[in-house]
Amino acid sequence: MGSWEDNVRKVVPYVPGEQPNQPDMIKLNTNENPYPPAPGVQKALSAMDAGQMRLYPDPASADLVHALADHYQVSPSQIFVGVGSDDVISMAFLTFFHGKKPVLFPDITYSFYEVWADVYRIPYRTIPLDDQFRICPEDYTLENGGIIFPNPNAPTGAAMNPEGVEQIIRQNPDSVVIVDEAYVDFGTASALPLLKKYDNLLVVQTFSKSRSMAGMRIGFAIGNEKLIRFMQDVKYSVNSYTMNRPSIFLGKAALQDDIYFRNTTRKIIETREWAKDELRKRGFHFADSKANFLFASHETVSAVKIFEGLRKRHIYVRYFNRPRIDNYLRITIGTKEQMQALFDALDEILR
Amino acid sequence: MGSWEDNVRKVVPYVPGEQPNQPDMIKLNTNENPYPPAPGVQKALSAMDAGQMRLYPDPASADLVHALADHYQVSPSQIFVGVGSDDVISMAFLTFFHGKKPVLFPDITYSFYEVWADVYRIPYRTIPLDDQFRICPEDYTLENGGIIFPNPNAPTGAAMNPEGVEQIIRQNPDSVVIVDEAYVDFGTASALPLLKKYDNLLVVQTFSKSRSMAGMRIGFAIGNEKLIRFMQDVKYSVNSYTMNRPSIFLGKAALQDDIYFRNTTRKIIETREWAKDELRKRGFHFADSKANFLFASHETVSAVKIFEGLRKRHIYVRYFNRPRIDNYLRITIGTKEQMQALFDALDEILR
């Protein structure tokens, strides 16, 4: 064996969450939407012609970008699309976090921020949430080379108010501030209106949660034109054709049906609020989630025990073995029926 | 405006080749396959259920990986899949070319190698092709941190014999050697059999050309398990879910119909050989291409003039304004009818 290994970029391998695949399972572990995509998506899928697949997709994904621009009332030149919001944020890290000062993000947050910083050798510093798992805007005044946080935060589900978000952006005019709004459609105010006031803001959203399209891998960022152009330049230097034809075509179709979108997100919000009551009754406490999941801890029974008990009953939730949160479970909001099955199982486990 | 721009990774923006979209055009500019994907792909597409799109795809793309493993008679752990071979090679650059010594590749080759090296800040050195546009294995003995070349080469189409490829790999046991076989199915011997002898070899192929699926973005690499594991570790630190559900499902379907695959590649090879005669008759010369394109220069009329003349007639070929090749046109092999239309147009332009 030669010494080619010396030149290898070695990273601590990130292990994606398990994707169990059992016919009778209740899958509440990866924040998927329990409802199918809008009916127009099936129609679009059925209309697709495999013959077109021989041709490259449009590298600019113009059809999808224009549909997003119409929907969010911004210019197409303010939109960047990618293979899920992971691709979009990874590209933003590579583009905007290229300085020597540390990038700031919360200590309890989306675990990929740390992973991207490691793989791209970006210095970073985590800022602890307060005792109630809240992001405190006044903590984000340290010298930094960029800031990213989700709103609502993951895996806590806690949302910051618009004033708090604006404070962080205003305090840091020399940094790009990325607000990761993967879960924003379940009841949090978006930072999008702030784009008119701040040129250092990048808002990232996804089709994976509220639009029921995790399987299609579609994410997007909205920011000022200059910011987006810098991202495009890097993206076109990595892979010009990231969005395949089905993504562009079905993504556009998913945006057309706003009534369906409002109905399904409303149903998930209602189920979430009901689930909060049901969990409270059973001795759980949690931050006031505005996402499509709850991050809950039981007053007497350990998270691991509950996790294992649910798993035995083919109900999958997410457990993170990490400091400060190792007694919590992240429970995706499913249908009412799925949640009832969860509560029934909890009644057995907690008995 | 703040100074956030100081932290931006600024790259020379890569401009992807034009993707014209006119109903009557003849598109011979991006090496797409003139034939549709195998009939099984349309069947698979019609069988897809949009309801499944709400669920994340399998991060390991196991169905596609196993189909590839069966097809190429290797272990699934020897296979890496990505969003087109661009994604695969970009990930290989990030993973394997992490040293301080320059990476080597030909001066006339796939233009993205230079772009990836720039975006990832990888030192590199280009090695000139000889006067007949050939890669000379003995030139690849300089100290290096990795090697990549396409076989057949692009945009020349010239293939290296298996001994030459093996010589480069054997000479460089301390470097990862990537053989980019995007066009290998049109009549070149693959380096895959060498995997049994060398642990520093990575072979990259794509569904975009010979499998008529440019629009789906599916590429893959085959190498020894250790090499693949290093790539997976980096990939899982960038984006765990790169392959969407249609890619995995339709990619697998495309591999099932070997007879269709052989028939369409054979037809393209036949058309290419006929096109060589027709171009020679008209005063063109070119390297002996083994790809689905010809790289041709006319004895008296400039490439730019021919390019513009064809364009006016809605026939698109590719022109590269780069040293040593600025009097050449890269012409994709279309159907016999498309090529006849090209020759008719050339007869008018050269008259």
TrEMBL record, chains A, B:
<feature type="domain" description="Aminotransferase class I/classII large">
    <location>
        <begin position="24"/>
        <end position="346"/>
    </location>
</feature>
<dbReference type="InterPro" id="IPR015421">
    <property type="entry name" value="PyrdxlP-dep_Trfase_major"/>
</dbReference>
<dbReference type="InterPro" id="IPR004839">
    <property type="entry name" value="Aminotransferase_I/II_large"/>
</dbReference>
<comment type="pathway">
    <text>Amino-acid biosynthesis; L-histidine biosynthesis; L-histidine from 5-phospho-alpha-D-ribose 1-diphosphate: step 7/9.</text>
</comment>
<keyword id="KW-0032">Aminotransferase</keyword>
<keyword id="KW-0663">Pyridoxal phosphate</keyword>
<dbReference type="GO" id="GO:0030170">
    <property type="term" value="F:pyridoxal phosphate binding"/>
</dbReference>
<comment type="similarity">
    <text>Belongs to the class-II pyridoxal-phosphate-dependent aminotransferase family. Histidinol-phosphate aminotransferase subfamily.</text>
</comment>
<protein>
    <recommendedName>
        <fullName>Histidinol-phosphate aminotransferase</fullName>
        <ecNumber>2.6.1.9</ecNumber>
    </recommendedName>
</protein>
<feature type="modified residue" description="N6-(pyridoxal phosphate)lysine">
    <location>
        <position position="209"/>
    </location>
</feature>
<dbReference type="GO" id="GO:0000105">
    <property type="term" value="P:L-histidine biosynthetic process"/>
</dbReference>
<dbReference type="GO" id="GO:0004400">
    <property type="term" value="F:histidinol-phosphate transaminase activity"/>
</dbReference>
<dbReference type="InterPro" id="IPR001917">
    <property type="entry name" value="Aminotrans_II_pyridoxalP_BS"/>
</dbReference>
<keyword id="KW-0808">Transferase</keyword>
<comment type="subunit">
    <text>Homodimer.</text>
</comment>
<keyword id="KW-0368">Histidine biosynthesis</keyword>
<dbReference type="InterPro" id="IPR015424">
    <property type="entry name" value="PyrdxlP-dep_Trfase"/>
</dbReference>
<dbReference type="InterPro" id="IPR005861">
    <property type="entry name" value="HisP_aminotrans"/>
</dbReference>
<dbReference type="InterPro" id="IPR015422">
    <property type="entry name" value="PyrdxlP-dep_Trfase_small"/>
</dbReference>
<keyword id="KW-0028">Amino-acid biosynthesis</keyword>
<dbReference type="Pfam" id="PF00155">
    <property type="entry name" value="Aminotran_1_2"/>
</dbReference>
<dbReference type="InterPro" id="IPR050106">
    <property type="entry name" value="HistidinolP_aminotransfase"/>
</dbReference>
